[in-house]
Design goal:
558 residues, alpha/beta, seven-stranded mixed beta sheet, five-stranded parallel beta sheet, 22 helices
């Protein structure tokens, strides 16, 4: 059991932290504390132990901007006023926050395991919530699949008093989409570069030894570039498959050689895959795919070798840097500039990026302009029973970030939706043992800077993430900056599917999802027993279902 020690304080709340957990407190306010990592927005990039001035006091008085505008990080702020307790989770979601009502009040924790260690009774699995999670296709929501446990979402605040528990939305990406028309492409690239450099460097100073994932792609290479420091040196790691499509070692060697970093080369090992093992057992809902356990095992080996306390990734780069193959950028340009030379240039960029014709690009943009400005989240109905789908279809998919304000641009709405799509995959609770998982590109300063970039600039000259490419063009090898394609472990995943096909079939057709009528068992059986070689996107869904089965068994087994 992890030891929990009292941190503060007076009032209606009691706060405990794990031994060694960093926290910051207002110098004159023992009734307000901030748990996790917090940095000043302007000034030193070092982690703040004492928040300057009366930031937390102002927050407790109702000025949330005093905290959100002046600081950033991965934190949860807790404060007690005379009549209520307030809890604010930072917009990046780097510090998880789950809560549950008890006879004595409300208990909150950074993980389900912390709640259990603090005395909360082990919750039961809510199977209908598991089905809902599969259907929602990564759309975040407060409900979890464990009875009585809810999640405080990034940027939200919980207000608890004697009568109620209310959630307030304190941070919205829509407050940061306005851009300066005179800044230009190069200006946005320069601002983005400073934001990324300062943010990654600030995170790196939190740890003595750092391991960084280097796949050879743009996002991870940018993070590695900003991690450069003399001592102790940063170590890179790449994980390769036996087939050429999943072997990125040449690109990883290129970036590490360019930066002078040691590179650890790991492999996807079939012995690390187990059908009955859950890749994310400590999360309150099935998340991701069971095949992720193989990658995690490789990273754990690299962490042991390097002695690093943190693993840095480029996760979220596609989302933050607005990777898209849609015509949203052209729709935005038409709304902003009308039929103009700029719109023609954006049409040309989309054609270069996607391979479509000019007419197809115009038609796609016009379809977007005719739709409601609210982003229409697409549910994932694959392999779910028709009765389950019908019931869930009757419940609208909602999130406050999807509610676009008047005058919103459709391409920017898609950018914001993509920020939601990654959130459920950022919680690394005990995923890598005692090492911290850091996804710096999802930090508040980088996200806000990226939101202010017009969508058509992200695809300029037919390049995806073009502003980020330009920002770091002189700091990265040309082969990385100009790279258009990316490999992945698809071959390894396909091999695991064929190698364990019989066991996977038995697990899914006789498992909890089938017994509760959640999956379309006949359709799934036909596909699993088919000799059709190309699984395509169905392969991803199968491993999502396997993760759900393993997660259910983990929690029901106790």
């Amino acid at each position: 059991m992890t030891r929990l020690e009292p941190v503060a304080f007076e009032g209606r709340a009691r706060v405990f932290a794990q031994t060694g957990c960093v926290h910051a407190a207002a110098s004159r306010a023992r009734h307000a504390v901030l748990l996790g990592s917090v940095f000043e927005r302007h000034g030193s990039n070092d982690h703040s132990i004492e928040l300057k001035g009366s930031v937390l006091e102002l927050w407790l008085q109702g000025s949330t901007d005093a905290l959100l505008d002046r600081h950033w990080g991965g934190y949860v702020a807790v404060g007690s006023t005379g009549s209520a307790v307030r809890i604010l989770r930072d917009p990046s979601g780097a510090m998880p926050c789950y809560y549950a009502a008890t006879p004595g009040g409300v208990i909150l924790g950074s993980s389900i395991m912390v709640l259990l260690e603090a005395g909360f009774e082990r919750p039961a699995v809510e199977i209908d919530r598991v089905a809902q999670g599969l259907y929602r296709a990564d759309l975040p929501g407060e409900a979890t699949a464990l009875s009585g446990i809810r999640e405080l979402l990034p940027g939200d605040e919980l207000v608890i008093d004697a009568r109620s528990v209310d959630t307030l939305h304190r941070w919205s990406p829509w407050d940061h989409v306005a851009f300066e028309p005179d800044l230009g492409f190069a200006g946005h690239a320069s601002v983005l570069r400073r934001a990324v450099q300062n943010t990654v460097a600030a995170w790196s100073r939190r740890f003595e030894r750092v391991l960084v994932g280097v796949s050879g792609g743009l996002d991870s290479s940018i993070v590695a570039t900003c991690l450069q420091r003399p001592k102790p040196p940063v170590v890179g790691v790449t994980v390769a498959t036996d087939d050429p499509i999943g072997d990125e070692r040449d690109y990883a060697r290129t970036i590490c050689g360019h930066l002078g970093l040691e590179l650890v080369e790991e492999k996807y090992e079939s012995c690390d895959f187990g059908i009955a093992r859950c890749a994310r057992p400590n999360l309150p809902r099935p998340t991701g795919r069971t095949i992720a356990q193989v990658y995690d095992a490789a990273i754990m080996r690299a962490l042991r070798y390097s002695g690093a306390q943190a693993f840095f990734t480029g996760n979220g780069g596609d989302n933050v840097f607005a990777f898209s193959h849609s015509a949203g950028a052209l729709a935005d340009r038409l709304l902003h500039d009308g039929i103009s030379s700029g719109a023609l240039a954006t049409n040309r960029a989309i054609r270069q990026l996607t391979g479509c014709t000019a007419i197809e690009a115009w038609q796609s943009a016009l379809r977007l302009l005719r739709r409601p400005r609210r982003y229409q989240w697409r549910a994932d109905r694959r392999m779910l029973a028709s009765e389950v789908v019908a019931e869930l279809d009757a419940q609208p998919l909602r999130h406050p970030w999807l509610d676009a304000p008047a005058g919103a641009l459709p391409g920017k709405a898609a950018h914001i939706a993509s920020l939601l799509r990654i959130q459920r995959h950022l919680d690394g609770t005990r995923q890598l043992g005692m090492a911290s998982l850091v996804n710096p590109l999802m930090s508040q300063p980088i996200v806000e800077t990226s939101l202010a970039v017009p969508s058509w600039m992200w695809c300029q000259a037919g390049q995806d993430r073009s502003v980020a490419r330009h920002a770091f063009a002189d700091a990265l090898p040309r082969s990385i900056v100009e790279r258009r394609s990316k490999g992945g472990p698809d071959g390894f995943v396909a091999r695991m599917l064929m190698q364990h096909r019989s066991a996977i079939t038995e697990c899914l057709l006789d498992g909890s999802l089938a017994r509760h009528g959640i999956i379309d068992r006949p359709a799934l059986e036909r596909r699993l027993r088919s000799d059709r070689p190309d699984w395509g996107a169905e392969r991803v869904r199968l491993f999502e279902l396997l993760e759900a089965e393993a997660w259910i068994d983990h929690w029901r087994a106790g």
